[in-house]
Amino acid sequence: METNQSIMKHLFMLLFLCAPLLQAQVKNTIKSQNLSLISLEKGNIVYRGINNPLKIAVPGAKSFTATAAGLTKIDDKGNYNFTVTAIPGDSVTIKLDIIMAHKKVIHEQKVFEIRDIPNLHATIGNRHCSCYGHYQDGIKQFRNSN
Question: How many CB atoms lie within 10 A of CB 23?
Fold first, then answer.
């Protein structure tokens, strides 16, 4: 009959030899959650008429490609400009093709709301003004309206 110490040695050796197999199974499992991180300074809203800076990162990925109308890559650090001026509708989708370290390809998408920047209106003394002409004419017109 084996002693407890001998049994413990055999169990330890068995666990030591099986650990790489268990670890290999865990590495090949990919969660169904999104892997990519797309960060906008203004939440999930992009505005027409301006460059919308954003950063895209995919932790654990070997490489990725982000595509969308109006999306321009700035550098290899994940910085992009997103210009949606010519895109019709009220939403736009960024599609990501991600290649993981173990060669598995994952496809993801992120939808952003498109908003128009409202026209600017100047007010002086709680009155809307619009100056079509010279500055002095506008001042005279404003003074005469009081």
Answer: 9
List the chain domain ranges: 37-115
Burial (CB count within 10 angstroms: exposed 0-12, middle 13-18, buried 19+), residue 86: exposed
Residues 46-64: tens digit of each pLDDT? 999 899 999 999 998 999 9
Q: What angle do CA 47, 91, 109 make, to 5 degrees?
A: 110
**Cα–Cα distance, 110 to 113 (Å, whole number):** 10
CA distance 116 to 37: 25
What does the pLDDT read at residue 28? 39
Q: Tokens standing for 121?
A: 């209106």
In terms of CATH architecture, what is 37-115? Sandwich (2.60)
Residue 108 carries which DSSP code?
E
Contact 95, 108 (CB under 8 A): yes
| pTM exceeds 0.90, yes or no | no
Q: Is 111 left (phi over 0), alpha (psi -120 to 50) or beta?
A: beta
